[in-house]
Every structure is written in C-alpha cells, then in structure tokens.
Amino acid sequence: MRQTTVAASSAGMLISPPIESGIGKLSFNYGTAYTESNGLSMRVDVKQNGKVVKSFTVTRADATKHTVYNFDEDVNVSGTFTIEFTNLSPSAPSANKDRVAIWNVNWTQSR
C-alpha cells in the first residue's frame, strides 16, 4: 500500500498498487491507539481504470483505544483493481486526532 500524505491537518489515504485476478471478499482489521478520537470513519473504494466500482463506509462511533475491529465486505469484481482507504475524520479534517490504523488487508480472488 502507498500512503498519500497531504498537510498534517488533512485526512489521509492509503492506496494499493494495481492488483490482478479480481477481488471476491475484502477483509481487514482496524483500530486506534489514541483516546482523544471522536470515533472512526473511513471510506473504502475499489477502483478499476480510475473509476469507483464498489464503495462503502466503515464507521465506529464507539471506538476504544487498542481494540481490534474486523471488517469484511463482498466486492465481487473481476480484473485488475486498486483499493483506496480514506480517513473521513469525524472531528473535522483540521482536528488531526481521528487517526485510524489499518492492517491485515486480505482479499479472495473473484469467482
């Protein structure tokens, strides 16, 4: 994954390189290491040729520091794709305190 860095007070993004063989189900873990967060909210876009083919929002208003949350979603897209995670910063992009960690990003191949 590539991290796109914008100003320190702006919401961040993680963008995968192009991935071949399609995607069936996308799964990942997420959480926060900070107590000052007003919850977590991120948009996940699956793109092909620069166009969003599947989009969903992951929100957890009651996020607790050092807690692992799991997420999975059926995507079912064939061919080459990219995954983009965008932090929606519930406290406002300029607050710079709704930091979210994403790890164990996995997917199955499309059928």
Q: Regions with pLDDT < 50 over 5+ consecutive residues?
A: 4-9
Biggest pleated-sheet summary = 5 strands, antiparallel
Strand content: over 45%
Strand adjacency order, main sheet: 1-2-7-4-5
Give the helix tally: 0
Q: What is the radius of gyration?
A: 14 Å
Mean pLDDT: 85
Q: Helicity, in percent?
A: under 10%
Report the end-to-end length measured between terminal Cα atoms. Answer: 24 Å
Number of strands: 8
Order of helices and strands: EEEEEEEE
User: Structural class, please?
Assistant: mainly beta
Globular, elongated, flat, extended or rod-shaped: what is the shape? elongated
Q: What would your notes on this structure say?
A:
This protein has 111 residues and is mostly beta strands. The protein is built from no helices and eight strands. The protein has strands at 2-4, 13-15, 23-31, 40-48, 51-60, 69-77, 82-87, 101-107. The strands form two sheets. A five-stranded antiparallel β-sheet has the order 1-2-7-4-5, with no helix packed on it. A hairpin with an 8-residue loop joins strand 1 (2-4) and strand 2 (13-15). It is elongated, with a radius of gyration of 14 Å. The relative contact order is 0.37. Mean pLDDT is 85; it is low at 4-9.
